[in-house]
Design goal:
106 residues; 4-stranded parallel β-sheet; mainly beta; single chain; 6-stranded parallel β-sheet
């Protein structure tokens, strides 16, 4: 899908204490395009055993875009063969913001 409003395209887990467990996303394509405000494509707020395999996270946006943000309480998060970047726009692009220090990129 194309993200045209500020916010988060996909959030796994919640900041309020809920936890996402055991999710796999295969060959995802997520693009931030034309958004005038900051966008996070994938926000792993509070989760474990999350695997994102294949696909593309990219940006062509007027605002800051973060491809993957992993919260400090998350663990066992894996990006496997995910292409990040693509058509990077002028608004700034951060591929990975990992507060947990536990993200594995293959």
């Amino acid at each position: 899908p194309s993200q045209t409003v500020p916010g988060t395209l996909l959030r796994l887990g919640t900041r309020g204490g809920g936890r996402a467990l055991g999710m796999v996303f295969d060959s995802c394509v997520m693009t931030a395009s034309g958004s005038p405000a900051p966008v996070v494509l994938v926000d792993v707020a509070n989760a474990e055993n999350i695997s994102i395999r294949g696909g593309l996270l990219d940006s062509n946006s007027a605002a800051e875009v973060v491809a993957v943000r992993v919260g400090k309480d998350s663990r066992r998060i894996v990006l496997d063969n995910v292409r990040i970047g693509g058509n990077v726009g002028a608004g700034g692009f951060r591929a990975i913001d990992d507060e947990s220090g536990r993200l594995v990129v293959r």
